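seq as requested:
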Amino acid sequence: MIKLEYYLIVSTLMFFIGIFGFITRKSMIAILISLELVLNAVEINFAAFNRYLFPEQMEGMFFTIFGIAITAAETAVALAIIINAYRLIGDININDATKLKG
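struct tokens:
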């Protein structure tokens, strides 16, 4: 059986890589992917803690499935916004998004 610490190490790496990408990237698509990494790290934590702390209960798994559904909806809305921004300004660079103000 895999130890809980290994899951936490993978989750922590994914979380910090996502935060780093969110802060340093300029493309809206890259920022969205970084945000997805952060959310997936949280979902790994939900599943791992449920498995090791309460193996007979399923609350952590339900939270994980709910989080995946929310992430899918968030991705669909974000991609629609990014496509709209590309149609209006012709670029998906985050610095050019200020042209959408007015």
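The chain has a mean pLDDT of 92.
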